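Incident review: delayed structure delivery

Summary: a single-chain prediction request sat in the queue longer than the usual turnaround. Root cause was a stuck worker, restarted by the on-call engineer. No data loss occurred. The affected request and its eventual output are reproduced below so the record is complete for anyone auditing the incident later.

Affected input:
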Amino acid sequence: MKKIYKLLFIIFISHLLITPSYAALPNLLKGSSSTEQEPKVSNTELVQSLDALIKTLENNRQRQDLLVNLKDLRESLKVAAEKDKKDEENGVLTDFTELFDFLSHDLNGQTPINFWKDRVQLAYLELQLLAPSLSEFSTLLYSFSIIIIIWYLIARVLLWLIRRINLHYKLPLSLSNSPTTWEFLLYALEKLLPWVVAFFITLYTSNILPTTSPLGKGIALLMTYAIMGGGIFSALCFISLSLLSGDHRWGALRTLRRRAFRPLFSIGFFASLGDALSNYKIIGLLGGNLSLTLSTFNNLTAALLAGWFVITFRRPIAHLIRNRSFAYRKKRKSSYDFLRFLSAVWHIPVLMLVTASLIATILSGDPTSALHRALLCAALLIVALVLTGLIQKQSTKLQQRAKRNHNGLYFLRLTRFGYTLLNLAVWVIFIDLALRVWNSSIFLFEQGAGHNITIIVITVMLTILTTRLVWILVDTAIYRALTGVGRNGPSTRALTMMPLIRNTALCIILVIATIVALANLGMNVTPLLAGAGVIGLAIGFGAQSLVSDLITGLFIIVEDSLAIGDYVDVGDHKGTVEAITIRTVSLRDIDGIVHIVPFSVIKTVKNYSRELGFAIFRIPIAHSMGIDDAVKAVRSVANEMRLDPILQRDIWSPIEIQGVESFDSGNAVLRARFKTAPLKQFEISRTFNLRLKRYLDKNGLDLGVPRRSVTVHNGTPDTQEPSTQS
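Output delivered after worker restart:
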C-alpha cells in the first residue's frame, strides 16, 4: 500500500506540473526563496485539481499519455544530469566554449575565423567583379583625377587667402607657447576651414559634372573625406594639447608638436575612411562585403595606430598632465597628487578602450559598432577638454585682473565658483552624450531603476555645492576682516590668526553639512548628535593636556605674543616661527631643524622681532692700545657702516659707546650698540665685526688677547725683579 500511495503522490505532482491547473500551485522545480512568498492555495482549487487527476486516471488513454510524459521527463533529467557532470569535469574549458557560443550569436552562428574567412572570400569575388578593363580604367582614372584636382585647387586657394589675410593684418601663423583664445580660433580656422569648405564645394561640383565613372568619383570623394577627417582630428588634438601648455610643460608640448602630427593625422584618416566606407551609397557602389571588409580593416588600423600613439607619447602627455609650478604644488597638494596619479595611469584606460574596440569589432562583425562609438567618444572627450581649457584660461585671466582690486574679492571667488559649475556642466553633458553613443543615458537611468540612486546623488551634490558656496563667503569675510581694505598685504598677526579661524570655521561648516546631508538621506541624526556630545565630553575629560594646549595657545595668539615670521626663544628652543596651529607652534632654528612645540610647555616667550632691535658689541681692547684709540676705531667703522646705502636703512641710530663693561684676563672690554630694524641686529653685528677686523688689520692693530703675569726669581730675595709676558 505504501508503494501505491507513493506512486499516486508522484502522479499527482506530475499531473499538476503538466496540466493547466499548475497556476494555482507553486512550481516545485523552481524551488523556493526566502525573499519570495509562494501563492496560497485554497481548498476549492485543491478539490478542482483532484477532480482533474481522478478524470485522468479513469481514462486509460490519458493515463497512458501521462506515463509517456513522465518517461520523457525522466530521460530529459538524465541528459541534464550527464551534462552537469561533464561541465564539472571540463571546468574552464566549458566556460570558454559557452563564451564563444555567445559571442558567435551575432556572427550568424559562425566562429569569428569562419565568419571573416567567408566575408573576405566574398569581398574578393566582389573586387574581381568590380575590376575594370583597360579602357574602363582610363575613364576611372580620369574621373578620379578631375575630382582630386578640383578639391586640391580649391583648398590651395583658400589656404593662400588665409595666409595673405594673416600677413596683412599681422595675425599669428602658428600657436605660441601660451596661446590665447583668439590664437586658438585663428589656428582652427586656418587648419579646418580650407579642407572643410573644399570638400563640400567638391561634393557639390561632382554632382554637377557629367558622370563618366561613378566608381572613380566615389573613390575620389572617399579620399577627400578621409583627408578632411584626418586634418580635423589632428587640429582638434593639437588644440586640446596646447590648452595644457605652461612654464613647465613647453618641452613636452614642443615634442608633441614636432612628432605627433603624422600619427594623429593617420588615425583620423583611417577612422574617417572606415566611417565613409560603411555609408549605404558606398556599399551600393562597391558591394556589401567589399565595403564592410575595407571599413573593418581601416577601423582596425585606426585603433592600432591609436594604441601605438598612446604607448609612444605616454611620457610627453604625462608631463603635460603632471608638470605644475612650485606655487601650484605648494598650495594645492591634494590636487597635484591626483594629477601625478592621473599622469601615471592615463594610458591604461585608453589602451583598454582600444583593445575592447578591437575585440568587439572582430567578434561582432559590424565595423561601425564598437570602434565607431569609441572614436565618437574620443571626439566628445576632446571637445570637452577644449571647452574646459578655454574656461580655465578665462578664469585665470579674470583672477589676474581681480588681484589688483581688493574690493572685488567676493566677485573673483564667486566668479571662480561659477566657472567651476560651468566645468561640471560640461563634463555632465559629456558623460550623458557618451552614454547615448552606447545606447544609454543619465536621464534614462533616472527614469528607470536608478531613480532613487539619482535622487540621492543629486541631494549629495547640491549639499556639496551649497557647502562650497557658504565656505567661499565665510572665508572671504574672514580674509577681509583680518587683512583690512587698502593694505598692501596681511599683517603677521593676521597671518597668525587666519589659519586658526579658517580651520575652526571649516570644521563647523563641514559638521553642519554632514548632518544636513544625512538628514536629507532619511537618516535620524538625533542619536548621532547625542552620541557626538557624549564622545566630546569623554574626550574633554581624557585629553586634559590637549585642552591645556588649546587654551594656552588661544591666549598666546590673542595677546599677540608671537606671530608667523618672528624669531623667538621659548625656553628650550629658539628659532623662526613658521606655522601656528590651534595646539602647537613650529620653529625652525638656525641649523634648519624644525621644532614642534606644544603651547602647554611654553612658560616664557622671548621675541626678537618686535618694534626694534639692538646690535650689541663687546670688544676686548689690546693691552698695547689706548682706550681712546679703540673708541676712535669703533666710531670710524660705525660711521662707515651708516654711510653704506644698503645698511643705513637697517641702522636706526648712531653708534652708542656705553664704556668699559668689564675686564677679561687683564684686557678692558668695550661695550657699544646700534639700534636696528627688527631681526636685523644679528646681520648688523656680523657686518660690524667683519669691518672692524679689516680696519685693525689695515692699521697694524690687534684685538686684546688673554694676558698672563709671570714672576722670575733668581735665588736672591733682595734682587727679585718682576717680569711680564703676554
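Verification: The chain has a mean pLDDT of 75.
Action items: add queue-age alerting; document worker restart procedure.
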